[in-house]
Design a protein that fits this description.
The protein is α/β, with parallel strands linked by helices. The chain contains 13 helices and 25 strands. Bound molecules: uridine-diphosphate-2(N-acetylglucosaminyl) butyric acid (EPU).
Length: 417
């Protein structure tokens, strides 16, 4: 087991480079199995979710090589194979194997996915989409058995705006007969990235990034090389860390437009954010103003940055209310922040934060990925040395976190115990 230690109170200063987007990567890797030729993915983040996904494809018979930030995937000799247990259980995004294998082989047997525990995370909209395309689905002993030899395009209205369901339906429909229309589709940048990859492979997808996506089925998909978009959540985490330490940090390799909701909220708090073509410059303020945040599907404020923002708001003036409209229980970091001296009460889907005195270092545990990011930010602000357990959650989504933060002045290290 590993622990992270952070000596708080250092002002972050300098330049930090953002890696490729985790939530794109975990969709693009399974998308590659729709092709019978080689697919090369560049700018992949170096995180455990990506490594594990590569191993899952190898287990399925694909030839995978992963060096640095590039993964080469050749699924030409891949066979349909049940994946009821094992690695798929540790990865929420393993649900993309359902759409990808259904599209490629006309069947998929996949164990129900794991991932961060953020309250109920149903996949009924994914299933609704597959069924609308003509698949028959049976839930047996913890796995979904999905069969549909000839998928036929149709109109699918999503009852809930879902990133996962939108992408999964795009994957399954890319080689269906006829045209599929997804209405009330999610609009996240990661969805555009997946459509861009599929189109480069030969698919015919229009409208990704809007709430209506049209997918004209094609008979085969071929080779391509694709570079993944920057991770807006990693970038946002560094923006919040800069603000939290009253720092002066340039965050490079970002698409500023993807960060607009966060930029607006930081500015409301008095933080200076300047946008360049592919960078944002954040300068913290001596006195932060308390604000309210409501998470929403893109382009609203991302739920994935709600937890890191909660840490920052503990140091602002007045009362702030953070409401998570996406997940029912994404507040597991709050007890740990309270241990560090924060004044936060959770009421239903909201956290009410009273701006308080400086946080004090403590022993805390990352219960999920973004809770981990929230605790890292709290540790950067706190007096003393904070000890964080549950580091494997953080490693799922942040490329070389300590190295990047140390590069801008953080004092932190990792110990194996
Ligand atoms: N939902 C349903 N039915 C469904 C699908 C979703 O009710 O069939 C609900 C969910 O319970 C949730 C909401 O719809 O309340 C949105 O869920 P969505 O499907 O959009 O989430 P997801 O695809 O499972 C992705 C990211 C999450 C991110 C959410 C929201 C990946 C692998 N995960 O999850 O990322 O929080 O979108 O933006 O892309 C993270 O990176 O820390 C993370 C959890």
């Amino acid at each position: 087991m590993e622990k992270l230690y952070i000596k708080g109170g250092q002002r972050l200063q300098g330049n930090v480079q953002v890696s490729g987007a985790k939530n794109s990567a975990v969709a693009l890797i399974p998308a590659a199995i729709l092709s019978e030729s080689e697919v090369i993915l560049d700018n992949l983040p170096e995180i455990s979710d990506v490594r594990i996904y590569g191993e899952i494809l190898e287990e399925l018979g694909a030839v995978v090589s992963f060096t640095g930030e590039t993964m080469r995937i050749n699924a030409s000799s891949m066979q349909s194979k049940p994946m009821p247990n094992g690695r798929v259980k540790h990865l929420r995004a393993s649900y993309y194997l359902m759409g990808a294998m259904l599209g490629r082989f006309g069947e998929a047997i996949i164990g129900m996915p794991g991932g961060c525990n953020l309250g109920p995370r149903p996949i009924d909209q994914h299933i609704k989409g597959f069924e609308a395309l003509g698949a028959v689905i049976v839930h047996e002993r913890g796995s979904l058995h999905i069969r549909g030899n000839q998928l036929v395009g149709t109109k699918i209205y999503l009852d809930v705006v879902s990133v996962g369901a939108t992408i999964n339906i795009m994957l399954a429909a890319s080689m269906a007969k006829g045209t599929t229309v997804i209405e009330n589709a999610a609009k996240e940048p990661e969805i555009i990235d997946v459509a861009t990859l599929l189109n480069a492979m030969g698919a015919d997808i229009k409208g990704a990034g809007t709430d209506v996506i049209r997918i004209k089925g094609v008979s085969r998909l071929g080779q391509c090389r694709h570079s993944i978009i920057p991770d807006r959540i990693e970038a946002g985490t560094y923006m919040i860390a800069a603000a939290a330490t009253r720092g002066d940090v340039v965050i490079n390799n970002v698409i500023p437009r993807h960060l607009e909701s966060l930029t607006a909220k930081l500015r409301e708090m008095n933080v200076v954010v300047e946008e360049a073509d592919d960078a944002v410059h954040v300068v913290g303020a001596d006195e932060l103003r308390g604000i309210d945040i409501k998470t929403l599907p893109y382009p609203g404020f991302p739920t994935d940055l709600q937890q890191p923002m909660t840490s920052l708001l503990t140091q602002s003036k007045g009362t702030s209310i953070v409401t998570d409209n996406i997940y029912q229980s994404r507040f597991k970091h709050v007890d740990h922040l309270v241990n560090m001296g924060a004044k936060i009460k959770v009421e239903g889907r909201s956290a009410v934060i009273e701006g308080s005195e400086a946080l004090k270092a403590s022993k805390v545990t990352a219960t999920d990925l973004r809770a981990g990011a929230a605790l890292v930010i709290a540790g950067l602000m706190a007096e003393g040395v904070t000890e964080i357990s549950g580091v494997s959650h953080i490693d799922r989504g942040y490329t070389r976190l300590e190295e990047k933060l140390r590069g801008i002045g953080a004092v932190m290290w990792r110990e194996s115990i």
